[in-house]
Amino acid sequence: MSNPFTPTFGIVPPYLAGREVFLLEMQRALQDGPGNPNLSTLLIGPRGSGKTALLSCVAEEALQSGWIVARTVAADGMLEDILQSALKNAASFLHQRTKKKVKSVSVGQVLGIEWALEPAPATNWRTRITALLDELKQHDIGLLITVDEVRADLPEMIQLASVYQLLLTEGAKISLIMAGLPAQVSDLLEDKQVSFLRRCSRHYLGSISDTEISVAFEKTIAASGKSISGEALKIATKTAGGYAYMMQLTGFYIWEEAATHSIISKKDAERGMIRAEDAFRSGVLLSTVRELSKGDVAFLRAMLPDEDYSILPDIAARLKKSSNYISTYKRRLLMAGVIEEGAGKTLSISMPMLREYLEQQNA
Ligand SMILES: Nc1ncnc2c1ncn2[C@@H]1O[C@H](COP(=O)(O)OP(=O)(O)OP(=O)(O)O)[C@@H](O)[C@H]1O
Ligand SMILES: [Mg+2]
Questions:
Q1: Is pTM beyond 0.85 here?
Q2: Whose CA is nearest to atom 8 of ligand 1?
Q3: Ligand 1 centre distance from Cα of residue 241 (Å)
């Protein structure tokens, strides 16, 4: 029985915790086609919250609904990359559908040799993608573009957004799903050239509920031929802390501890938990804390006296500063995915183990 957990970035786990509603909405959007607002969506979440995995699932959903998909990461050359993979996927999709040789269908012509071999100047990108979309439209095929790791400082990202907006208004069957870290997305949204992006649906990948984490643990384990005791499941769920990557780390080490038996026990969970926490500490926590400024850390420390959640005026009083002054730190920490804002503007530390880590340093 091989270990079913996937503590590796970018890998889609066998069961996604807490994404059912979003995926259903996306499924509906892809079936509805043009006009559904969720076809233009921004996925926003901290490191390891599951953005790349979710993009993969949406791409899979799109394929099932008869769309073709072009996936890319925001980087120089991304526009050409999108076009080439869209052309390639369109050709093989039509080939499968029509059972004709690619050469004989019109996408073959769209794939004009001069395009395929020589990247044309970027200004031509709109004409080329429009030609492809026109072609796809005749077969009622939509094009989903996914862009991972969005960045605001990239001219091609801006160009993509503006061309996409035009294509939408022309009624193209097209969808753009982007994913990025909160700080990058927020910079992108501030860019005046692409104010249209502010109207995209936004989906935040915050903490996943314990119930959903627990169900995903049980399903993953059961599908791979083991089971887990109630006590062990409680420990595992608590260790995961509502965080996708930590769930996979926890599951992975708990499974390793139970290598020789079929029911994962409390003892396996306790041992696995220690290994998962060590891995998380060295792999995520230390680098996250290192990237924070002194002011950010002081803000976090001022949250420690509150057991579950804090409010800004209390934090300000502890730091002997005005609420206005410290709101910069609040914004920075929210963007880093380290804290979360709840009902009534309450703030809580959302990164697993961070509170314990800071408390130990304080001691
Ligand atoms: N919904 C989920 N439930 C459980 N595990 C998940 C879920 N989504 C992703 N994972 C797991 O969490 C880890 C991180 O996922 P992923 O690489 O998609 O995160 P990310 O947000 O793209 O991270 P980064 O910002 O570093 O690119 C992976 O191990 C993946 O298998
Ligand atoms: Mg990613």
A1: yes
A2: 50
A3: 14
Can you read off the two tokens belonging to residue 89?
């996927």
Q: Which of 93-107, 198-212, 297-311 has the lowest mean pLDDT?
A: 93-107
CATH label of the domain that carries residue 344? 1.10.10.10
Ligand 1 atom closest to the CA of 181, numbered from 1: 25
Domain holding 285, by residue range, is 226-289
From the CB of 219, is ligand 1 less than 6 Å away? no
Mark whether 148 and 28 lie in a shared domain.
yes
Inform me whether the pLDDT recorded for 291 exceeds 90: no
Residue 80 placed within a domain: yes
- How many domains, the chain? 3
Instruction: Looking at the CA of 288, name the nearest ligand.
Output: 1
Under a CB-based contact definition with an 8 Å cutoff, are residues 69 and 144 in contact?
yes
pLDDT score at 96: 74
Length of the chain counted residue by residue: 363
Q: What is the mean pLDDT of the chain?
A: 90
The domain spanning residue 166 has which CATH number? 3.40.50.300
Q: Which of 16-20, 94-98, 287-291, 339-343 has the highest mean pLDDT?
A: 16-20
Pick the ligand that lies closest to the CA of residue 48: 1
